[in-house]
Amino acid sequence: MAITSGAGPHKAWLNVDGETLAIENGSVTQSAKRKTSSFSCAIPMSVKGAYETLAGLGDNNATITVLTRGTTGTLITGEVDRVSIDYIGRTIRVTGRDGSAKLHDNKSSEKWLNKMPSDIVSDLIGRVGLSGNVTSSALMAGKKVSSDFVKLSDNVSFAYIIHKLAQLDNAKWWVDPSGKFHYVPIGSPAGTYSIFINQDQEPIVSDCLDLNITRNVQAGKGISATVKSWHPKLKQTFQYQSNVEGRGGPVQYQYHIPNLTQDHATKYAQSMASEKARHELTVSATVVGDPTVYAGMGLKLSGTKLFDQTYDIDTVHHNFGMPGHRTHITARGAGEGRSAS
User: Fold this and answer.
1) Which partner for 242 in 56, 100, 168, 269 could form a disulfide, CB atoms 3.0-4.6 Å apart?
2) pTM listed for this prediction
3) What architecture is the 103-185 domain classified under in CATH?
4) Average of pLDDT values for 260-272?
5) CATH class label, 192-217+280-333
6) Helix (H, G, I), strand (E, B) or coil at 175
């Protein structure tokens, strides 16, 4: 649950290669949108060991840690990418990304025979030193050639391959603050964070500093996603139409994806319809800095009367420095009860 005790004192540190360096100000953006999380911070040159440590970095392990109102938490685990030294302002600016950055840096041209998407994901993340929670897939990956299911890649990044596999599985992936990789179906949050607003009294009471809900009317209409595929080896056309009920519509989407069997066409259509519908409601909330909330959790909202439900947290942005520590949360979801057929 969000904290209601006010800003309170806080401290932050960059921990890199065995050195703990006090941060003057910084930010961390955590993403559960099939993207890499990132961090940025400023460290005074007067901090003991900062200049010598940061000026000569090579391969490194880095974390950002905060102590806010007595609660210590790690906001991100990754690697420093850039170090910028301001000799006049006497400040060192450091930027970096989490462990999934290597998924973007490495490329693949190969094929996998008779593998589930989850098997391929586990293979690729293992090559860059990641491990974690990979939910098993229901279908084989790739096209069917005779009796073999084959997934091909052609000089694309590991991250791109995982992204395309996640589209089939209707999954999302991210690296949590501890450095653990997650590949799970959308709608399967890793824990829940709660916020509320009480509008039945004056003045209103809330544990948010700011709370906005945006409803995308078009995404709230009925959704119809049709996937068509011609399979040259089988000399057959496969097709499936997935629907999500809504207010008005339907808004129709057509996809032509080659080499799919019927099971794959069905799964793709359901995933595409669900993906469109989940953009119906977007919750943007700012709370007092809280290191216990992170991207990939569910956001349970209460007190709005019309929009009370649990949403998937897509991004969490921490800002910390002299003005204090604040946490900005963005979460999304379709209206309650809307699911793909």
Assistant:
1) 269
2) 0.91
3) 3-Layer(bab) Sandwich (3.55)
4) 91
5) mainly beta
6) strand
